[in-house]
Amino acid sequence: MHNSNGDTDVADSQHSLRSEELAAQKTAMIGRTIALCLIAPLSTYMVPWPGPLFTYVLLVVFAVLGWGAWFVAKSDWGRPWHQYAFVSLDAILLTFTILYPNPLLPFDSPPQLIFRFGVFPFFFVLLAGLTYVYKPSLVLWGGFSAALSWSLGLIWILMLPDTIWMPQSPDGVDSILDDLAQPTFVDVSARIQEMVVLLIVAGLLALAVKRSRTVALRQARLGRERENLGRYFSRSTAKMLAERAEPFSQPSEHHCAVLFADLVAFTSWSEKHNSQETIALLRSVHGLLAEVVFRHNGTLDKFIGDGLMATFGTPEPTQTDASNALAAMVEMHQAFEEWRVSRAPGQGATLSLAIGVHYGPVVIGNIGSKTRLEFAVLGDTVNVASRLEGATRALGCHCLASAALVDAAAAEQAHLDAVRSALTYHGAIPVRGRDAHIEVYKI
Q: Which ranges in 100-230 belong to alpha helices (H)?
């Protein structure tokens, strides 16, 4: 297994985060819709009729803007600036909703009076909804848009001819208090304070969102790394490796089973088929064999051209490694034959699968350099398993299992009657590169 390319890691993490952003934004829109639905009956109760009709229209526009932003964000044609535009529209609409007098109310009240009712906190609710999207810049833009919209609304109110925003009577405290009591008085300093606090909160929330984004990216990378482990190891082994800081920091030595599988006659087959058909067949076979390996708690060490190498008992040995390897060999042979028969005529009939399995001591650990590492299983056991797979051609059989493997499986006291019935004792055979012969069983 090699270290992933850094750019690929970032791209995969960003893709995972985008999915989370869209899911979170949809959740925020559902919450927003529920809140608007609750505001509607509250408005019906509190606002004299027919004033609620104007409120209903504004609530519908808020809902359309919210779901419109989510729809554009998840579309292929949506652009990043679209989200900023929707945030600005939200701020403008909220300012309009707060400051513009309801034309359907049965009485008139000065628009300046709205500042007495503490309506500004609604902007903080709007700002909080932006934190779901994991974009600090969007939160900052939301604070800026809200402050700008509120400033423009305040300027409009101050320009009204009856607005009092500075004490008009210089005749003492009593006259100043009289001015403050006027319904058209606007406390400008309080409004400026509101906008300053909003911008501060937007900055703090942006920092929090940035931190959350960093954590989310880290979790996405961890999840992807664990998923990648699942392509090589069984689920329990992948979980164990993901929980360890440095599982292969020190080499270890123990007994395990090593399996080699290879497609026979694949070279001549590929000469008669195009590249798309060749890749499709390899993916089909590799997928079939890998499923068998994982089903028997094996580790997929690597794909080797049209074959593979798998181990049983790495990175840590168990009490059933030999049994699992033997059962995997038999099932792999049977599954391949079923696959070959099920293929269309000429699509795989000339192919066969050669398998060699051996059991013995191996050394496992990381090899390579600081910039490129590979999990490796080394030793004479690996070489013998590879030689057994190659020896199947000379013996005219599909599978060869060493007697060491069969004996180890028997010692594990596993229920292998069906597996053993598929094997035939062949005797000792020479193995290239070794002086001693190896006793084998064959299918």
A: 122-130, 136-158, 173-180, 188-229
Q: Where are the domains of the chain?
A: 6-227, 246-442
As a dihedral over the C-alpha atoms of residue 199, residue 205, residue 211, residue 213, rounded to 10 degrees, the angle is -100
Q: Which of 403, 397, 399, 392 is nearest to 428 (CA)?
A: 403
Low-confidence ranges of the chain (pLDDT < 70): 1-18, 166-181, 216-217, 219-250, 344-348, 367-375, 414-415
Q: Using one digit for the tens of pLDDT, what is the confidence trace for 326-341?
A: 999 999 999 999 888 8
| Full-model pTM | 0.53
- The SS3 of residue 76 is coil
Helices (H) and strands (E) in the chain, counts: 14, 8
**Enclosing H/E stretch for 359:** strand 352-368
Q: Going along 279-415, which residue ranges are E strands?
A: 299-304, 307-312, 352-368, 373-378, 399-402
Residue 303 pairs in a beta bridge with 308
Give the residues across from 377 on adjacent strands: 364
The fold for domain 246-442 equals: Alpha-Beta Plaits (3.30.70)
